Amino acid sequence: MENCLFCKIIKGEIPCKKVYEDDEILAFYDINPAAPIHILVIPKKHITSLAHLEKEDEILIGKIYGVINKISEEQGFKQDGYRVIVNCGKNGGQQVMHLHFHILAGKQMGEKVL
Ligand code: AMP
Ligand code: ZN
């Protein structure tokens, strides 16, 4: 997708601090961390938001959670726990219109909405 920031990161046109990569998924550090550890996990396929998911994408979403679990283990925050956030659309506060999963870790999360 042209002019999509995260597609440019996937193509290597914009640099990132990579945490994990396979054929379908990329994970990298957020440029403006909201926690001591703040990682973004994205599908390499351009999916605009959760609202744009197609039936065929559901297996990929399952794989993303598998990657999150793997990253938490490798980075050493699995045991202490962490938070996963997906912002969707305007009311969800989504700014980058390429589906991404925030992983926040390394501190006690305080500001619970739910
Ligand atoms: P959201 O508000 O859910 O759309 O989240 C977008 C996230 O992308 C924010 O946490 C930004 O800090 C992050 N972000 C924006 N540009 C970059 C970049 N070039 N590299 C890494 N993270 C970025
Ligand atoms: Zn994209």
Notes on the protein architecture:
The chain is α+β, with helices and mostly antiparallel strands. The protein has one domain: HIT family, subunit A (2-Layer Sandwich), CATH 3.30.428.10. It contains three helices and five strands; from the N terminus they run αβββαβαβ. It has a five-stranded antiparallel beta sheet with strand order 1-2-3-5-4, with helices on one face. A hairpin with a 7-residue loop joins strand 2 and strand 3. It is globular and about 35 Å long. The termini are far apart. The site of adenosine monophosphate has 12 residues, from loops. The site of zinc ion has 6 residues, from helix 1.
Task: Summarize, please.
The chain is an alpha+beta fold and 114 residues long.
Q: Percentage of helical residues?
A: 10-25%
Number of strands: 5
- CATH superfamily name? HIT-like
**How large, in whole angstroms, is the Cα Rg?**
14 Å
Tell me the span between the first and last alpha carbons: 34 Å
What order do the helices and strands follow? Answer: HEEEHEHE
Q: How many helical elements?
A: 3
CATH topology: HIT family, subunit A
Uncertain spans, ≥5 residues at pLDDT below 50? none
Q: Averaged pLDDT, please?
A: 96
Quickly give the structural class: alpha+beta
Largest sheet: 5 strands, antiparallel
